[in-house]
């Protein structure tokens, strides 16, 4: 155990377990979480030491193995695989890899349970829940992702056969990006333009079988594969799919809201956007996912910054880098943001569950509001967390650039979230319409003679800025309100208040221009904010390691040599480097192959 970390933990002014329980929702929730997590951390199949030395194909193969192990574990422990089962969420939440079950449960199954009729749910949900089929959610196409109404895949109703014919009419209509589509899934919920009696009724969802259940070969009319290497998400076979007049029964259209009768008559839903419900669920999940990712990166960087000593500030005295105010200004706001986003994630999940049960009973009034706030918070938290995770990585200096740091994998897994489930700019624009000052701007543009679309586009930058400000304001308000409602000992509350005040003041300092421009604050007041930040950094310093310890991440989850709980960084780093495949032999074969000839040749 690193002496520096031991001292940090001894100096803490609050009870770490109390904060862990507070963040988990109580000691019983902590107990349940740790009990469930131990199932994963004690199953060797979930932890390959050489995971980051595997080829893309080996990693995919490994992810499918983990998929199978997870299903076996859930069956053995009688944990129902549902996104609304807390034990399942705890279990899958401690596996740091993106594995196929996420999309199968979080989008394929949830689309059917949210948008399928009773009969359709009775037929498909047991198959999905018992993994008799593997599904994905195939909406995005080669040429369209954001513009859902512009998708080109067609589903044309043939009333003589009472079937839909699914077709990819153009190269641009090829489904492109859906997770676990390329190699894994044998079914998909497919978004397609519905045609009946030669009329188009827009995007609807259809269950389509893609592969034979006996030998997993693509069915007739199905061309399918992986889209190739990506920036990250290397366990995921994001795929492409072309459909050449694939026939499916009429009953495969998800018809809880919109319907097509056997005679081909279209019966519209009360709100067409209910078809988008699967996206809303994942946007809600991504808010909490961003908090967890930033908390993980903060844990690694703050522990390492307590272990790392650098530069003599006095003869013979080399301080911990965590004592540098610049290092505190990098890391403590990330820690505060992770906590703020955690509370925002809790709010989002609670709000989603409340509105989701209303929607399930047919009350769709709050659908648009849920869409607005979930889109805005998804955009704001994924943007901010992605940037903050990189700040944490850079704060680890040279070893932050080694894969031994562990932050790279967190970053690579969070980075696509600024795009998937709705490209963030477009998502901000879903919340901006609620912001009064921007509306005034739009009205001014309209009065100048612009039409709505042109005015909206011209005001786009301000709309996005307004949406960000709205989301930031909401998160600060929700953070403070959440702390007020929590029972905490005075010592813990003091620490949490300092961190929350740091988050608020840091946000003002980061956006000082807006506060000045809007007249909300003077230059003098902004100087007071900067002074307050310095004071708060000093207050947080003493407890920073104890606060990240309270996140209670297992070393097997963090997979970080720099951020391990015991802080034994240098020994581990040396042994990790020595175990690199490149060091298998004293002399690498490239010497005899190439270097030796170079040395001998007369260049
Ligand atoms: C744990 C599981 C791991 C999963 C890993 C993640 C896998 C990734 C999956 C994906 O990426 S799936 C594909 C995601 N794609 C998108 O997010 C596409 C983004 N684009 C859209 O959502 C829509 O195109 C749009 C930008 C919202 C615009 O939609 P549309 O053009 O149809 O809207 P308008 O005709 O302009 O009408 C706006 C009107 O509709 C309301 N609305 C829009 N979307 C929703 C919704 N999801 N829910 C409810 N309401 C919605 C919107 O509020 C407007 O209402 P009013 O203001 O007019 O009342
Ligand atoms: C890792 C990963 C996993 C994915 N998994 C799935 C999946 O499982 N299923 C699925 O269906 N899809 C999936 N996707 C696709 C994803 O949902 C889309 O990429 C996403 O919705 C963005 O759409 P796009 O790619 O068309 O981006 P575009 O919209 O083409 O974005 C390009 C640029 O255009 C800008 N832009 C676009 N429209 C507007 C506008 N109206 N106003 C202002 N600016 C605009 C954007 O802001 C952006 O800067 C995945 C993507 C990734 C990266």
Automatic annotation (TrEMBL):
FAD binds at residues 140, 179. Residues 15-134 form the Acyl-coenzyme A oxidase N-terminal domain. GO terms for biological process: fatty acid beta-oxidation using acyl-CoA oxidase. InterPro entries: Acyl-CoA_ox_N, Acyl-CoA_Oxase/DH_mid-dom_sf, Acyl-CoA_oxidase, Acyl-CoA_oxidase_C, AcylCo_DH-like_C, AcylCoA_DH/ox_N_sf, AcylCoA_DH/oxidase_NM_dom_sf. One of its GO terms (cellular component) is peroxisome. Belongs to the acyl-CoA oxidase family. This is Acyl-coenzyme A oxidase.
């Amino acid at each position: 155990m690193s002496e520096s970390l031991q001292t940090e933990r001894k100096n803490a002014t609050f009870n770490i377990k109390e904060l862990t329980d507070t963040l988990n929702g109580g000691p019983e929730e902590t107990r349940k979480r740790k009990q469930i997590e131990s199932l994963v951390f004690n199953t060797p199949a979930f932890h390959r030491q050489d995971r980051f030395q595997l080829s893309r194909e080996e990693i995919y193969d490994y992810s499918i193995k983990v998929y199978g192990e997870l299903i076996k574990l859930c069956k053995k422990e009688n944990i129902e695989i549902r996104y609304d089962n807390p034990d399942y969420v705890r279990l899958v939440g401690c596996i740091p890899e993106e594995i196929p079950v996420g999309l199968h449960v979080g989008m394929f199954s949830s689309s059917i349970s949210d948008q399928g009729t009773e009969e359709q749910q009775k037929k498909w949900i047991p198959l999905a829940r018992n993994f008799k089929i593997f599904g994905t959610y195939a909406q995005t196409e080669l040429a369209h992702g954001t513009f859902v109404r512009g998708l080109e895949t067609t589903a044309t109703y043939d009333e003589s056969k009472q079937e839909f014919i699914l077709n990819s009419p153009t190269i641009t209509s090829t489904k492109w990006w859906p997770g676990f589509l390329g190699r894994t899934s044998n079914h998909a919920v497919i978004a397609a333009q519905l045609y009946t009696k030669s009329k188009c009724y827009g995007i609807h969802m259809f269950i389509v079988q893609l592969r034979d259940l006996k030998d997993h070969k693509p069915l007739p009319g199905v061309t399918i594969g992986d889209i190739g290497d990506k920036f990250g998400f290397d366990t995921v076979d994001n795929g492409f799919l072309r459909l050449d007049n694939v026939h499916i029964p009429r009953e495969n259209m998800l018809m809880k809201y919109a319907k097509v009768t056997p005679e081909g008559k279209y019966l519209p839903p009360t709100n067409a956007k209910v078809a988008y419900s699967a996206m809303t669920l994942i946007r809600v999940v991504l808010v909490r996912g961003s908090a967890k990712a930033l908390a993980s990166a903060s844990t690694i960087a703050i522990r390492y910054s307590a272990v790392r000593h650098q530069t003599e500030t006095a003869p013979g005295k080399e301080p911990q880098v965590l004592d540098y105010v610049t290092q505190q200004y990098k890391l403590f706001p990330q820690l505060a943001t992770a906590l703020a986003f955690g509370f925002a994630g809790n709010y989002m999940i609670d709000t989603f569950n409340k509105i989701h049960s209303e929607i399930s009973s047919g009350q769709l009034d709050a659908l648009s509001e849920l869409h607005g706030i979930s889109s805005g918070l998804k955009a704001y938290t994924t943007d901010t967390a992605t940037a903050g995770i990189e700040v944490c990585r850079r704060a680890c200096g040279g070893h932050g650039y080694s894969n031994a740091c562990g932050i790279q994998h967190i970053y690579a897994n969070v980075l696509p979230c600024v795009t998937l489930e709705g490209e963030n700019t477009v998502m901000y624009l879903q919340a901006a319409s609620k912001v009064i000052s921007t509306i005034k701007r739009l009205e001014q543009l309209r009065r100048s003679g612009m039409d709505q679309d042109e005015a909206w586009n011209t005001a786009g930058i301000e709309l996005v800025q307004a949406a960000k400000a709205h989301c930031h304001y909401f998160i600060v308000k929700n953070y403070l309100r959440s702390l007020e409602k929590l029972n905490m000992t005075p010592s813990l509350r003091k620490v949490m208040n300092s961190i929350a005040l740091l988050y608020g003041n840091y946000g003002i300092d980061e956006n000082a221009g807006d506060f000045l421009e809007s007249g909300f604050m003077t230059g003098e007041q902004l100087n007071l904010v900067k002074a307050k930040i310095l004071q708060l950094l000093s207050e947080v310093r003493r407890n920073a390691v104890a606060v990240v310890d309270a996140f209670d991440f297992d070393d097997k989850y963090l997979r970080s040599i720099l951020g391990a709980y015991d802080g034994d960084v240098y020994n581990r780093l040396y042994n990790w480097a020595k175990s690199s495949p490149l060091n298998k032999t004293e002399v690498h074969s490239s010497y005899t192959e190439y270097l030796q000839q170079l040395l001998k040749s007369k260049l």
